[in-house]
Amino acid sequence: MNKPCLIIIDMQKGMADQAAGRRNNPQAEDNIARLLQAWRKAGAPVVHVRHISRSSTSLFAPGQSGAEFQEALTPLAHEHVVEKNVPDAFINSALERWLRVRGLNELVLAGVSTNNSVEASARTAGNLGFNTIVVSDATFAFALRDYAGVQRSPDEVHAMALANLMSDYATIRDTDSVLDELARALHQ
């Protein structure tokens, strides 16, 4: 049995910048670090996704410190790194091929932002037939004005993105339940 693959999306220094805006789940980085530590201890596969913007004024432009991984979540030399320049980690990145070649069908997604890169990547993963879990407290969203002009809180944006995913694309779990499932899977 293959171990599940942890995919950490866009946990770059720019996401911690005040310019990114008001967000929810202040414990998300700690939960992502807990997941990463457990995956490394289990010898399970890890993929780090990094957004590289096409805009020279972006926090995530090549060469900007915002494009660098957060220090606590920096990939190890043997961990796979995917670079993307659109929200979806599967687009123009060869991620699907990398997973298929290794027979990895169980994916656990964490990172930012819930309603953008996490949701886009989870939708594609689900559509491609991967068994996908999104870790609700290891993701976060930012406040956003909706199409009608109503300001939505980070919690509202986060909750709606998770609701969108749980209908057809992914299972939603919290960090503790994912860690429990990983421990059970390793002892089978």
From TrEMBL:
Transmembrane segments: none annotated. It comes from Massilia litorea. Residues 5-176 form the Isochorismatase-like domain. It comes from the Bacteria. GO terms for molecular function: hydrolase activity. InterPro entries: Isochorismatase-like_dom, Isochorismatase-like_hydrls, Isochorismatase-like_sf. PANTHER family: ISOCHORISMATASE HYDROLASE (PTHR43540:SF1), PEROXYUREIDOACRYLATE/UREIDOACRYLATE AMIDOHYDROLASE-RELATED (PTHR43540). This is Cysteine hydrolase. SUPFAM superfamilies: Isochorismatase-like hydrolases. Gene3D superfamilies: Isochorismatase-like.
